[in-house]
Design goal:
It is a single chain. The protein is α+β, with helices and mostly antiparallel strands. 40% of the residues lie in helices and 18% in strands. It is built from seven helices and eight strands. It has helices at residues 5-20, 24-27, 34-43, 50-58, 80-92, 138-150, 166-176; strands spanning 28-30, 59-62, 101-103, 109-113, 119-123, 128-135, 154-156, 162-164. The strands form three sheets. Strands 3-4-5-6 form a four-stranded antiparallel beta sheet. It has a two-stranded antiparallel ribbon with strand order 1-2. Strands 7-8 form a two-stranded antiparallel sheet. It is globular.
Length: 190
């Protein structure tokens, strides 16, 4: 699925982050150029989805030495080189789903479904050991984050500490991502 809205949503999310997340500008790393991203993916035989290309053109991960840059509360965005290392690690460890998922974050991992464009979560800390759908698409992931920031559900202090209204986050996320299993489950922190 080709989404022309992804670049616009990323640009709008950037504006919100610069306003509401004091450390974002300091910790977000510059994006890669399109040909570089395509070369990385094609060189490893990974399907090239426009969503992944736009995501890494926006920013090539975040500086992990900076505190609290996990804007989705499910891991900090990962750079392309590390995403490829994690992708190969999952394959080496023989996870049954490894070749069908591309990492977007560290820690609790957000994974882009290479067969369906759905965003999945693997989060041992939440007892999500196998990938579970969390956002219906890259587009709904971005719309969800924008909505959560706009409605004040996620707020950051000047030190970068986040405050989250988990119940509202769950309600909004479930509404925007009605097909995603995570928001239907008991794993939600509220």
């Amino acid at each position: 699925m080709k989404s022309i809205r992804i670049p616009q949503l990323l640009a709008y999310l950037e504006q919100i982050l610069l306003e509401k997340h004091p450390l974002w500008a300091k910790g977000a790393t510059p994006g890669l150029n399109e040909s570089e991203i395509r070369k990385y993916l094609q060189g490893d035989g990974i399907p090239v989805w426009e969503e992944i290309v736009h995501f890494f053109m926006w920013h090539d991960g975040v500086d992990l030495t900076q505190p609290t840059l996990d804007i989705t509360q499910f891991g900090s965005f990962i750079c392309m080189e590390d995403a490829l290392r994690v992708y190969h690690y999952y394959i080496q460890e023989e996870y049954s789903w490894a070749k069908q998922m591309f990492p977007l974050s560290w820690d609790d991992s957000l994974l882009f479904g290479l067969g369906d464009g759905i965003i999945y979560l693997v989060a041992p800390s939440l007892l999500v050991i196998e990938p579970q759908s969390i956002y219906d698409s890259m587009e709904t992931m971005l719309i969800t984050q924008i909505t959560l920031f706009e409605q004040g559900v996620i707020r950051y202090s000047k030190k970068g500490d986040d405050k989250v209204d988990f119940k509202k986050r769950s309600e909004i996320s479930k509404h925007i991502n009605p097909n995603s299993k995570f928001w239907q489950s008991d794993n939600i922190l509220d």
